[in-house]
């Protein structure tokens, strides 16, 4: 393989791995945009994010979700979060999460990696989540 092609292949492979896994440290910085309305361990304008992965949409007890979110049938995982966060109002029409979303796939991957890591962290979310 010519050196240039080899470099291109390596760059592509590295890019794909990064996009698939996401960088939780970068995601933590992107989460600042969410923190206007959300916290990990308690409800604010938006519901808490601890326990998010594997949870049904609209399932935090006592949080005043929109009927649209409760009826969405979504279960939150890497794939559904990626879709929702790209365009919240399009994926769940009628949601009260009036936020345009995170258009960049790379940023979404980083953000989701952070949400997964935080959800598993006893320091952030306790052992019960
Ligand atoms: C302007 C305030 C606001 C911002 C900013 C915001 N959210 Fe939300 N979010 C909400 C509200 C309100 C809801 C509840 C929506 C509903 O019931 O329709 C919600 C719901 C959600 C849900 C569904 C949770 C569940 O329990 O079903 C997820 C996931 C979510 N937000 C992720 C994010 C992420 C990640 C960001 C940052 C990129 C973000 N949100 C930014 C207000 C916000």
Describe what you observe in this structure.
This protein has about 130 residues and is an all-alpha fold. The chain has a single domain, classed as Orthogonal Bundle (Cytochrome Bc1 Complex, Chain D, domain 2), CATH 1.10.760. It is about 50% helix and about 0% strand. The chain has helices spanning about 5-20, 25-30, 65-70, 80-85, 90, 105-120, 120-125. The longest helix is centred in the first third of the chain and has 19 residues, at about 5-20. It is globular, with a radius of gyration of 17 Å. Bound molecules: heme C (HEC). Heme C binds near residues 57 and 65.
CATH architecture: Orthogonal Bundle
Distance between the termini: 49 Å
Counting structural domains, the number is: 1
**How many strand segments?**
0
Helical fraction equals 40-55%
In terms of DSSP E residues, the strand content is under 5%
Series of H and E elements:
HHHHHHH
Query: What is the average of the pLDDT values?
Result: 90
> Which stretches are poorly predicted, pLDDT < 50 over at least 5 residues?
15-19
The biggest beta sheet is recorded as: none
- Tell me the radius of gyration: 17 Å
What name is given to the CATH topology?
Cytochrome Bc1 Complex, Chain D, domain 2
Count of alpha/pi helices: 7
Shape: globular
**Hetero groups:** heme C
Top CATH class: Mainly Alpha
Give me the secondary-structure category.
mainly alpha
CATH superfamily, called what?
Cytochrome c-like domain
């Amino acid at each position: 393989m010519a050196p240039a092609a080899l470099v291109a292949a390596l760059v592509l492979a590295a890019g794909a791995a990064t996009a698939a896994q996401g960088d939780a440290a970068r995601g933590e910085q992107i989460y600042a945009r969410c923190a206007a309305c959300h916290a990990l361990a308690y409800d604010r304008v938006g519901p808490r994010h601890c326990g998010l992965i594997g949870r049904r949409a609209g399932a935090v007890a006592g949080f005043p979700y929109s009927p649209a979110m409760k009826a969405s049938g979504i279960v939150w995982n890497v794939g559904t979060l990626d879709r929702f966060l790209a365009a919240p109002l399009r994926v769940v029409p009628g949601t009260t999460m009036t936020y345009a979303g995170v258009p960049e796939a790379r940023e979404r991957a980083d953000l989701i990696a952070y949400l997964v890591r935080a959800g598993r962290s006893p320091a952030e979310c306790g052992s019960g989540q």
